[in-house]
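Model: Ready when you are.
Researcher: Fold this.
Model:
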Amino acid sequence: MEQSFNKVLVWLKGEVKTPPFSSQARIEVGYLLRRLQQGKSLSMPQSRPMPSIGSRCHELRINDNEQTWRIIYRIDEDAIIIVDVFAKKTNKTPENVIKRSQQRLKQYDNI
């Protein structure tokens, strides 16, 4: 018999609440995170790999009413690590977000 288990969510930084997220965007984030917890793979347009941050790192892409949100996460064997939540304002992920995410993951891995 196949055993079903959900990966835990580990929040290193950020939160998803209304406001600033709309209720619809918050529901979408919850749905996508649940799929990740269940071991499902996400791809564009919902998620894209972020090798510039590290292996197994991705960003969720949430289009809200007047704002675009990004959630940086890493898929570990037993957990989904939420590294950062931020409002996307430019086409390119800001360098400070990449560096900050790398530092948070390094600290997490050294615990």
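Researcher: Now this one.
Model:
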Amino acid sequence: MSRELGGRGEAWAVRRLEQLGYRIVERNYRCPLGEIDCVAVHRGTVVFLEVKARATAAYGDPLEAVDRRKRRKLTRLAQYYVAEKNLHGAPLRFDVVAVRVDGGEPRVDVIENAFDAAE
């Protein structure tokens, strides 16, 4: 995925998330362990979001890119974030945003509770 597509994909994702009532708290949060695409609050829950964009189906579905290794990394990043922001005890979840730009307008799908931290 090109940086340009990634940036546009994240912008489309944020726009859709805001339409769905998510309040964006952080974008591209960086720490020594890596980066979280987006952190938001949705219906009282802190949500860690992974955004995956694809221009074509040639590289597979965007959701397939959030494999076991990526889920483990996101879980560690979320634990770091919770400790840094002192959010212990807050309800948390992991959502994935799939952005597909195969031709015309982008299609943005938000998958709530896409995986559990215990996976």
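Researcher: Key takeaway?
Model: The chain has a mean pLDDT of 88.
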